[in-house]
Amino acid sequence: MASSTTLFPFLSIVALALLATAYAHHGFSVELIHHDHPRSPSYNPTLSPSDRIQAEIQRSNARAASLRAYFSYFHEYHDGYPSTYPPPSGSQSPCHPPNSPHGTTIQADLFASTDNNYYMSIRLGTPVKEIIAVPDTGSYLIWVGCEPCPKCYKKDPLFNPATSSSYTNLPCDSKPCSQLTPQRFCVNSTCTYYESYGQGIPYVIGDLAQETFTFKTTSGSFVRLPGLVFGCTHITNGTSQRNTAGIVGLGGHPLSLVSQLGSSIEHRFSYCLVPSSLTKVMTSHLNFGSDAVVSGAQTISMIDNGRQSFYAVTLDGITVGNNSLGPINSTMMIVDCGSTLTSLHGTVLERLVDALKKTISLPQVEDGQLPLCFNESTRSDYGYPDIILQLGTATITLKPYNAFLMINNHVRCLAMKPNDNFSILGNIAQQNFHIGFDLASWKISFAAADCTKN
Question: Where is the active site (predicted)?
C-alpha cells in the first residue's frame, strides 16, 4: 500500500486530467444493468413478473421516503446539517455508530437506498478488482466495501486495499478531506468519513482514499483513471448495503465521479434507459463527455440547490392528450434514476387521475398501492393518452409506457404516487429519453430516443 502524502493527491489529479483528456474528445459509455437483469447482483430467477413489479414499487416507496427524510433534515438544520457532529477531528475512533454518546445523528447528502434499480461495473486497484456498484444521481461520494468489513455485502470478495499497489489513504489536511465537511473526522492522520442514509439508521464509515479506477466501455475497450478519490468502507450496520458493494455518486458535489473527471469529460454525462419490457434482456447506457451530447434536445436550466447531490427542475403544468389540467403551483421535480415511480403533489395527482378517468374507457379496478388501475381484459383498444409535462420552457411527452405499469396480465396502473414535499420524475417516465446533464452550465437536456440503439 502506498504511503499518504499531501503531494500525492495533487500529482494524481494532474495525472487523471492528462489521462482523461486522451479520451474526452471521443467520450465513453458504460453499461447500466437493471435490477432484474440476470447480471444484476439482485437478480432472483424465481420471481414472477408480478412479484418483480411489486418489488419495484416497494423500492420506489423506500427511495421516496429517503428523499423526504433528506429534505426534512435539510430544512431543519443550517446548510442541511446539524451544528454538532460525532467524533471531532483528531479525537475519536470511527467505531462509534450513530446515536452513540459521542455525538448526534446527521443526515448526509448520500441519502439513497442502495437496493437500487440500476447497477454498473467498476474495476479498481492494481491488480484490478471488479465491483458491482449503484450509480446514483442523488449521491456525491464514490465508495465501496473494503476489507476488513464484517457486515459489508459479501456476495463477492471485498476489495482489499492492502493488496493494491496504487491505493493510498488521504491525510486529514488534504483538499478532498475538507470537501467532506462536516461528515468527517480524523483517525491516525487518515481522513475518515461517515455517511448516513436517513435519520442515522443505515450508515457507512471508512477511509477517504485515492485509487486507480478502470471502466469497461460499451465498445469493449477500457478507460483507466488513476487517482480517483473514493471511500473505502470498513464499518456499516449492514442495512445500507443490502445488494451492492458500493455507490458511484453522480451528483454535483466536487467528489462525485462527474465532478472529478471535470473538464476532461466537458463536465457532462447522460443516460438512456431502455423500456421496462426489455430490461431483462438488454442493458442501458451511461455516457460521458462527447458521448453525452444529446441531439435534438430541449435544454433547460436546473434549480440551483447549491450544486451538491440531486438534480431538479420546475414542474409548471400537465396536459392529458389535448386537455390541460389548468394552472398548478410550480413545484420542484427531482430527476431521479433511482426512483421507479413518478411522484406528484397530492392535489395535482388527483386532478390528473380525474382527467384520465374521463379519457380512458376501461373498467377501473383497485390495486391498493397505485392511484388508478384499469382492467384490460375486456378491450383491445385501450386508449391511453399521452401525458405532457411542462418543465420550465421544455415539454416532455410521456407515452403510455412512460406513465403506466402493467401489474399483471390484465391490470395496468398509473405509475405515479402522491408526494406533497416535492415531485419526482421516476425512471419509468425517463425510459426512451436521452437525458443529459451539463454541470458547467447547470442545465439538463431531454430528447426522445430509441434507447435500444443508443
Answer: 136, 336
Residue 200 or 249, more confident: 249
Output the nine-digit C-alpha cell for 172.
Answer: 486529514
Report the number of distinct structural domains present in the chain.
Answer: 2
In the beta sheet, which residues pair with residue 130? 123
Catalytic residue among 36, 115, 136, 438, which? 136
> Rounded to an integer, what distance in angstroms lies between the CA atom of residue 200 and that of residue 202?
6
Dihedral over alpha carbons 343, 244, 272, 21 (to 10 degrees)? 130
- Which listed residue (109, 115, 316, 336) is catalytic? 336
DSSP 194-247: EEESSTTSSEEEEEEEEEEEEEE-TTS-EEEEEEEEEEEEEEE-SGGGSS-SEE
Which residue shows C-alpha cell 435534438?
Answer: 296
Does the annotation mark 36 as catalytic?
no
**Percentage of the chain surpassing pLDDT 90?**
58
Residue 173: give the domain boundaries.
7-278
Residue 124 has pLDDT above 90, yes or no: yes
8 A C-beta contact, residue 258 and residue 265: yes
pTM of the model: 0.86
Q: Which residue has the higher pLDDT, 194 or 417?
A: 417
The closest of 193, 215, 212, 214 to 204, measured between CA atoms, is 193
CA 401 to chain CA mean position, Å: 22
354 catalytic per annotation: no
Sign of CA dihedral 19, 223, 179, 80: positive
| DSSP string of 147-187, one letter each residue | SS-TTS--SSPPB-GGG-TT-EEPBTTSHHHHTTTTSEEEE
Q: What's the CATH number where 342 sits?
A: 2.40.70.10
Last residue of a domain, one of 225, 247, 278: 278
Mean pLDDT score of the chain: 83
> Among the three residues 228, 243, 278, which one is the final residue of a domain in this structure?
278
User: Is pLDDT above 90 for 439?
Assistant: yes
- Evaluate whether residue 1 is within a structural domain: no
pLDDT at position 143 over 50: yes
Query: How many other CB atoms are there within 10 angstroms of residue 45's CB atom?
Result: 6
377 within some domain: yes
Instruction: Judge if 372 and 262 occupy the same domain.
Output: no
> pLDDT tens digit string along 49-98?
889 898 889 888 888 887 877 666 555 543 433 333 333 333 343 333 33
Residue 318: inside a domain, yes or no? Answer: yes
Give residue 18's pLDDT: 45
Number of helices (H), then strands (E), belonging to the chain: the values are 7, 27
